[in-house]
Design brief:
Layout (H helix, E strand, L loop, with lengths): L7 H7 L9 E2 L5 E2 L9 E10 L8 E11 L5 E11 L8 H7 L3 H4 L6 H9 L3 E4 L2 H11 L8 E3 L16 H7 L2 E2 L5 H12 L9 H10 L2 E6 L7 H6 L3 E3 L6 E7 L3 H11 L13 E5 L11
Parallel strand pairs: 1-8, 3-6, 6-7
Antiparallel strand pairs: 2-5, 3-4, 4-5, 9-11, 9-12, 10-11
This protein binds a DNA duplex (20 and 20 nucleotides) through strand 3, helix 2 and helix 5.
Length: 300
DNA sequence: CCTAGGTTACGGACTAAGGC
DNA sequence: GCCTTAGTCCGTAACCTAGG
């Protein structure tokens, strides 16, 4: 694997062959990848936002996206060009944001996202992907209402990286373990990092993209324990339920994966809606959550 | 700095086992 | 039978991790 790399022999003479590791600069060229099939393709778009901070009032200062086409086995067969925009937040950038991203006030001055182009590109794909989709989906739907309600996947949590032999889930560290380095924390570079990760073959024999799509396409179920007796609040909280005091009616709610749906119905019937539990309603409500609802801002 | 979720750590209560 | 100790279990709090 290292044959032909300049200086390899000299390095091996000083250090053992196994005592060091090379990382390749990430390069994701546009066009056909030369691998994978040709029929029944699916289109994905990877997005990344750089923002003015992590708080609720912070806004997008850079948006990048890049579409790709994949075959039914989750092998990426073609990669589109980059698109990215800077946007002026209307106030000075915090020092740590400038340090983290390298984006300065001068860089964003007077710039703005091309709403129409960004929304058109996002809507042209079958699904959107981001590393920590909860973060990016919230910012994108707030900034681009026309892109609300799309199908979302998360390269951070819809793939079992740990179970596949990777340590940690941060983008740069996953990429390094895949053998690459990149210019982190610029939206375009981070988008390419995600594409490179999605192309990885995992120990399962499938690509990371294939695993991510399988997880994301599977519905989850939102249980609302409407009318649960007040005294059961601790048991509900312990089981992962959260209180929604804004909804109507106010209730405890929880999302459950498809394979645990029956188990949850059984638990609710026995613990919350049995006669002895004195429920104030006949039963819970169950709502199907697909990748169109998942990771959306403002939970229930 | 924020948000959500998942894991770890710990105090308190309880149980099983050993010494007398 | 009684007391102490070690191990177990449970609920809760604290911590950790992704994202800028």
């Amino acid at each position: 694997m290292l044959d032909g790399i300049p200086g390899k022999d000299a390095l091996c003479a000083v250090n053992g062959e196994d005592d060091w590791r090379l990382l390749r600069r990430l390069d994701v060229p546009e066009g056909e990848t030369g691998v994978g099939g040709r029929v029944d393709t699916v289109i994905g778009v990877v997005v990344d936002c750089e923002t003015s901070g992590l708080g609720g009032d912070d806004v997008i200062i850079e948006l990048a996206l890049r579409r790709f086409r994949a075959d039914p086995n989750g092998v990426i067969v073609k990669i589109d060009r980059h698109y990215s925009w800077l946007e002026d937040p209307g106030q000075d950038l915090a020092e740590d944001i400038v340090r983290l991203t390298g984006i300065t006030d001068a860089d964003v001055a007077g710039k703005s996202i091309d709403d129409e182009a960004a929304v058109r590109l996002l809507r042209s794909a079958d699904f959107v992907c981001a590393h920590n989709a909860q973060f990016d989906r919230g910012h994108i739907e707030r900034r681009l209402p026309g892109a609300a309600g799309l199908a979302w996947t998360c390269s951070c949590s819809d793939i079992d990286w740990r179970g596949s032999g990777y340590d940690g889930r941060s983008l740069g560290w996953l990429l390094a373990q895949a053998g690459y380095f990149h210019g982190a924390h610029r939206a375009g570079d981070d988008v390419d990092a995600v594409i490179a990760l999605l192309r990885q073959d995992l120990p399962s024999g499938r690509t990371a993209l294939a695993e991510m799509l399988e997880t994301a396409r599977r519905p989850t179920w939102r249980f609302r324990a409407v009318g649960a007796a007040f005294e059961l609040r601790n048991q509900l909280r312990m089981r992962g339920y959260r209180w929604d005091g804004e909804g109507d009616p106010k209730c405890w709610w929880r999302d459950v994966p498809d394979e645990r749906r029956a188990e949850e119905e059984w638990w609710l019937a026995g613990q919350v809606y049995s006669v002895s539990a004195r429920p104030k309603a006949l039963g819970p409500t169950v709502e199907r959550i697909t990748w169109r609802e998942r990771y959306a801002p403002a939970s229930p």
